[in-house]
Amino acid sequence: MTKIYHNPRCGTSRTVLQTLRDRGIEPEIIEYLKTPLAVPELKALIQAAGLSVREAVRSKEPVYQELALDNPALSDDQILQAMADNPILLNRPFVTADKGTRLCRPAEVVQEIL
């Protein structure tokens, strides 16, 4: 079962979703802004993609600066909690498929797991 953690306002996320559909895959769409992930779910998703927590956080969002998430003294657990509390901080889109999990940024990365 293929899943996409999707933000419909994000161009990259829309491109990846269309790529999946063009390949005949109708993924489970998880709009994580409407249905935020809990800390354990975030941690598992990020680990499955082989990323660090800091690599998975979206630093371009104003709330990133507001919460001073660039502070190197913050632990992964503190950043994960900020991501759970502010789902816009999750970089996107993540895709899980039979061949693995990837943060599909740039969009072409999705090809690695199809």
Automatic annotation (TrEMBL):
Belongs to the ArsC family. One of its GO terms (molecular function) is arsenate reductase (glutaredoxin) activity. PANTHER family: ARSENATE REDUCTASE, ARSENATE REDUCTASE-RELATED. Keywords: Arsenical resistance, Oxidoreductase. The lineage of its organism: Bacteria, Pseudomonadati, Pseudomonadota, Betaproteobacteria, Burkholderiales. The keyword Cytoplasm does not apply. It catalyses: [glutaredoxin]-dithiol + arsenate + glutathione + H(+) = glutathionyl-S-S-[glutaredoxin] + arsenite + H2O. This is Arsenate reductase. It holds the Pfam family ArsC. Gene3D superfamilies: Glutaredoxin. Its EC number is 1.20.4.1. NCBIfam families: arsC (TIGR00014).
